[in-house]
Fold these 2 entries.
Entry 1:
Amino acid sequence: MNKISVVVPCFNEEEVLSMFYKKTSEVLNEIEDITYELLFVDDGSKDHTKDILRALSLKDDRCEFVSFSRNFGKEAAMFAGLKKSSGDYVVIMDADLQHPPVLLKEMYKAVSEEGYDCCAGKRVDRTGEGKIRNFLSHTFYKVMQKMCKMDMSDGCGDFRMMSRQMVDAILELKEYNRYMKGLFSFVGFDTKWIEFHNVQRAAGNSKWNFSKLFAYAMEGMFSFSTAPIVWIGNIGTAIMIASILMTLFGLLVHVTSMFHLVCLILFLSGLQMLFVAILGQYMTKDYMESKQRPIYIVKETSKNLS
Ligand code: UDP
Ligand code: MG
């Protein structure tokens, strides 16, 4: 009999957890010939998330939890869940019911019968999300797709069911900077995409704010692409050629314009600062990797989880 592990990262999700447990268990109970575990990862919540998880794990021994010592971020929470999972198939889904549990049936069919290694949900719209966030996310994924030459299109989130082989491959990647969407794409394997419409959060608010999303986007960009360094080189070369041509032009025609000079100096110094910052990003990534710090620190686990 196959076992499905469902990994659920939770950060301040007290309002939705009971509903999530009810809906997801209902669907899992309907899938024939399987056993399952619900593996909640409390990512340093400040509300009553942990109390609810404790109660759930006492009530139902298929529910287990790991609780972090502080908020390490969703990527770290997903990693911890994958590491603790023991199922033949592992699902990652959000706690807020934005990932419809009913799709688990179709996902299980794809991985257990149709021969796929992974079945992932692709959100086809973003109704209910802010227009600015919508636009920025869309642009980000377009740029990433081009830069990384990896399949990371908009809407392809973390909601997926994977084979044990794929999960083990992801766990083999020991890097500190874990941008999951990039890691999924990096390990490869046959993925079936199933489309679903965006649903509003069942309760509570999104745990992302602009600065968190910006940091997440930068993480993705600098961990999975070295294209910005190539751009720097190209732009630098172009500026050098342009300045040589301008010097030659200045020798032929007499030009004096203080204003233009000041503009040029300001522009170039800004450009240099930007380039230094981009290079710095790669160096900090390397710096973080070299420290070999743990990706997360566990404070408490449910009794039935070693
Ligand atoms: N989450 C987490 N740690 C964080 C932020 C979010 O574990 O630092 C979890 C959150 O509890 C939820 C999932 O990641 O289960 C997705 O978060 P959210 O619904 O806030 O994101 P959105 O749907 O707005 O992209
Ligand atoms: Mg959500």
Entry 2:
Amino acid sequence: MPAINVVVSGAAGQVGYSLLPQLCGGYVLGADKRINLRMLDIAPSLEVMEGVKMELLDCAYDLVDEITLTTDAEVAFKDADIAILLGGFPRKAGMERKDLIAKNTAIFKVQGEAIEKVASRDIKVLVVANPANTNCLVCMRHAPSIPTKNFSALMRLDHERMRSLLTQKINEACGANTVTSTEVRNCIIWGNHSATQVPDASHVTINKDGEAKPLSAYYNDKEWLEGALMKDVQQRGAAIIKARKLSSALSVASAIKGHMRAWLYGTDEVVSMGILSNGNKLGVPENIIFSFPMKCHGDYQVSIDESIKYAPSLEKLIENTTNELLSEKHDASSILGKEL
Ligand code: LMR
């Protein structure tokens, strides 16, 4: 099997440093997949990328055929099969959200255009850099010959945050080791990867000893589930930045691994992914990248689990996260001078 060309943008950054060992070690795309790694970043980060490349070489990975460092998107994306886009312009003190959208719209336009021009027509693109959902839309719209289903935005981080908080809470309430994280299934995040996202525990099941029981069999405090749980998941990124003075990185890398493996290999649980909203039957407007409960069938085939509906009590929150995405899209569209 030929090696897969894998682009990681923002490769000199914190998330790259956590992700690259897992990617090169075969934990993301599989232990049978050889890769040509394309590390893309901006010119001031070239020397750091060189240092990271030295470390990757020192790991003597069996699966890595080539490592290319570049600041040129067209070099990075040439015949690329997979792109994991970590590189974006970070929010700086005093920056308005609109400024952040402007900076990132410019970056993701260039990357989309490069994908359109030189990437494999079958490329799969995962957008991680914030604002991830809108960056994904900008990238997708500048690569019109690539199927829209080949683009997704990372929501798995929020999904795992919710899974972990629920696991901790059940074990606190029912006794240590009552459940493991993998037994807590069907966490759902709706909407945007931002503080407006809607973590929804109403479909969670505990799959233990071959049996799926509703969450309520273990824990049923609605006040916590619809209050502190939601707020803590929504605010987790900010809490990490406050504590670390840096944004999350190792948990992002772990979520990327989960997202890519579910997308490629499929999974029997419902996971949260940001995808283009077109054709959904849940009333979410078209042409935004929205996080839905997704069934992953393997080989990058996914579908919205339409048996899962949000409760009427969440409607206002869903409207809020939808409006935020529409407003981000509106800002990006005005910068580009065309409707996304
Ligand atoms: C996170 O959720 O931890 C990050 O998206 C936060 C950030 O702004 O980097």
